[in-house]
Amino acid sequence: MASKHIVFPFAALAAFAASSAAQAQVGAAVTADIGTTGVGVHLVVPMESTLNGRFGINYFKHDFDKRSGLVDYHMDGKLQTYDVLFDWYLMSQSSFRVTGGLMYNGTRFNAKGKAAGDGKFTFNGNTYTAADVGTLNGEVTFRRAAPYLGIGWGNALTPNKRWNFNSDIGVFYQGKARVNLVSLGCTTSNAVCGALARDVNVEELRLSEEASDFKVYPVLRASVSYSF
To answer: Which CATH number fits the domain that encloses residue 150?
Structure first.
């Protein structure tokens, strides 16, 4: 009987050691991602048995034309975010996760206003010639620190499996847009240039309200990962 009591703890210790060795085979992983945040790469590291840390960068360049109010703009956009995320799995070996964390939001849009077909601009109900306005330049940015919350499927650190597929659904909060719109080169007269500056300020406020529709930015992302 004594031998049975001795064999059992040694068998338990051997099983625990084997399990630990399997877990140790996966030290970290890298992911290649694509989605609404653009293309990205992340490093995934284990923190607890049901918690991973995920750190990376995403980038997306997007140029487009947009009509806002009575003015046409050419938008030169750059979406760039840096992620510090934590993936919590409801149970060990589960593929479903809840993700929270913080993003550094470097998203920025540069805007260049274009005159209408008749060569004129209209701000705040007032019309100006292209010569009055000169060049109309704008910049749209958002808050830098953007909290993230979402869910996902897949575990880049699945034991004994090098390649994995993962997906994310979530949102990050980037707050109200900050818009800076200026007209440069007005030489018509002090009265016209002063009125133009006031109307451009009204247009700036209108653009800020419009761009603030994107306070909450949706994240849909798929990735492939390799663990090592």
So the answer is: 2.40.160.170
